[in-house]
From TrEMBL:
The active site is at 100 (acyl-thioester intermediate), 354 (proton acceptor), 384 (proton acceptor). GO terms for molecular function: acyltransferase activity, transferring groups other than amino-acyl groups. Belongs to the thiolase-like superfamily. Thiolase family. This is Acetyl-CoA acetyltransferase. InterPro entries: Thiolase, Thiolase-like, Thiolase_C, Thiolase_CS, Thiolase_N. It comes from the Bacteria. It holds the Pfam family Thiolase_C. Residues 276-397 form the Thiolase C-terminal domain. Residues 14-266 form the Thiolase N-terminal domain. SUPFAM superfamilies: Thiolase-like. Keywords: Acyltransferase, Transferase.
């Protein structure tokens, strides 16, 4: 059944274009390994304006997420990529790091700039080449990014994300079978969406890669059951005896390469340029959460963004919850009461991949398209983030 679509005001922040590269394996044999991150991002920046005929000289700013801002992803990759994409030298750019939610935060910053009247046209984007810039490579040997205050506050120490995922699985009583069933389903949905061409409109092929490289059609619970725990550690096992060691490479997101970009304008600019808004940024929020469990922020973020929007869970047609690890989404669904049948309908990061700094914009691109394909009105995106944070964003189809 068709839903009535909302009108938009001149000062609304609206999405008029959204694209992403196919996601490649974040390894040396991945299809995108030879593409420098600045060029990977430049590709999405070029496509997002080119597809709707916007002159890049009209862009007020480019805000891009990247997590490991070192080596090939250092020196303000947003600015380097926009120049590499052929944008005029007059266009500025800045790079943000909110861990896995970096480019979702870039979208929020872009929308906030439009709503405040500081921007008329802005690109929010993200990139991560985990094959060229390995996760954690921005932490130099002998360095201490946490400081003495953190050590005093958490004298027992914090833990890596994989251990946080194990703690969540234990606290919520999630079995290995449940985690693997969820993960196999993610691959099934992503494989079906690929086969049916549901990603075609959002993809910007690059380096000969025309489809997401990581999706494994035919993945089953039985095949996943043979994988060994990825994060087993005797010291952590002694510290946390409740852990059952259920997190494997099969129910975790894989190392990935990719970029994505979202073009956001004011309603007035969209009308002036004759652009068709796909959705408006309805409501945004960000929360902090327990840094030991780290990945549970999606639960309070969902509750907070719904309350701020004046909407109920039942008003949301589609959910996108980043599949950093299977227990994140399952714990979120259990606590919020959200319908998993409406969640990650084209698969998620376990199947598609999780190029850290790009994932927020990748998910938004997929969500905007899925909302239109399914003739829905509201969609909600949320992502857990390193250090114990989460962004949540609601969009409304126009």
């Amino acid at each position: 059944m068709s839903v009535s679509k909302a009108a938009y005001d001149d000062r609304d922040a609206v999405i008029v274009s959204a694209v992403r590269t196919p996601v490649g394996k974040g390894k040396a044999n991945g299809a995108l390994h030879d593409v420098l991150p600045a060029d990977l991002l430049a590709h999405s920046l070029r496509e997002v304006v080119g597809r709707v005929g916007v002159d890049p000289s009209q862009v007020d700013d480019v805000i891009a997420g990247a997590v490991s801002q070192v080596g090939d992803q250092s020196v303000n990759i947003a600015r380097n990529a926009l120049l590499g994409a052929g944008y005029p030298e007059t266009v500025p750019g800045t790079t943000v790091d909110r861990q896995c939610g970096s480019s979702q935060q870039a979208i929020s910053f872009a929308a906030q700039g439009v709503l405040a009247g500081s921007y008329d046209i802005v690109v929010a984007a993200g990139v991560e080449s985990m094959s060229r810039v390995p996760m954690g490579s921005n932490v130099l040997p002998g360095s201490d990014p946490f400081g003495r205050g953190m050590a005093d506050r958490y004298p027992d120490g914090l833990v890596p994300q994989g251990i946080s995922a194990e703690l969540i699985a234990a606290k919520w009583g999630l079995s290995r079978t449940e985690l693997d069933e969820f993960s196999a389903n993610s691959h099934e949905k992503a494989a079906r969406a690929t086969k049916e061409g549901l990603f075609d409109h959002e993809l910007a092929p690059i380096a000969g890669l025309t489809q997401d490289e990581i999706i494994r059609p035919g993945t089953t619970v039985d095949t996943l059951a043979g994988l060994r725990p990825a994060f087993f550690n005797e010291a952590y096992s002694a510290r946390f005896p409740q852990i059952n060691w259920e997190i494997t490479p099969g129910n975790s997101s894989p190392l990935s390469d990719g970029s994505a970009a979202v073009l956001i304008t004011s309603g007035a600019a969209a009308r002036k340029l004759g652009l068709r808004p796909l959705a408006r940024i309805h409501t945004m929020t960000v929360v902090g959460s327990d840094p030991l469990y780290m990945l549970t922020g999606v639960i309070p973020a969902t509750e907070k963004v719904l309350a701020r929007a004046g909407l109920k869970l039942s008003d949301i047609d589609l959910f996108e919850v980043n599949e950093a690890f299977a227990p994140v989404v399952l714990a979120w669904a259990r606590d919020t009461g959200a319908d998993l049948a409406k969640t990650n309908v084209h698969g998620g990061a376990i199947a598609i991949g999780h190029p850290l700094g790009a994932s927020g914009a990748r998910i938004m691109t997929t969500m905007v398209n899925a909302l239109e394909q399914r003739d829905g009105r509201f969609a909600l995106q949320t992502m857990c983030e390193g250090g114990g944070m989460a962004n949540a964003t609601i969009i409304e189809r126009l």
